[in-house]
Specification:
The protein is α+β, with helices and mostly antiparallel strands and about 90 residues long. The chain is about 15% helix and about 20% strand. The radius of gyration is 14 Å and the shape is globular.
């Protein structure tokens, strides 16, 4: 698994503990102690959607590179699921 840098407006969030990083490996971490578990549980999220409790993320929306493209492809009645709360 190669290291990835989050695009502008996105951030990696560990779904297990709520820590944050600008890259998958934690070289540009925001939260202290980003570790291997965080790498394995990280998802790319929209930075504007983060709901914080102290320094940890408790909820966030998944990153959508082109939200307009998704709207054009969706069919009537389709629902868009958001990322479940961290630790759920």
């Amino acid at each position: 698994m190669a290291n990835e840098i989050a695009p502008r407006g996105a951030i990696f969030v560990c779904t297990h503990c709520g820590k944050r990083s600008y890259d998958l490996y934690g070289d540009q971490k925001i939260s202290r102690n980003w570790d291997v578990s965080c790498v394995l549980n990280a998802v790319l999220c929209d930075e504007k959607s983060l709901v914080m409790k102290g320094d940890l993320v408790v909820s966030a929306d998944p990153w959508e590179e082109s939200p307009f493209e998704d709207e054009m492809e969706s069919q009537p009645g389709d629902s868009q699921d958001s990322t479940p709360p961290i630790g759920a």
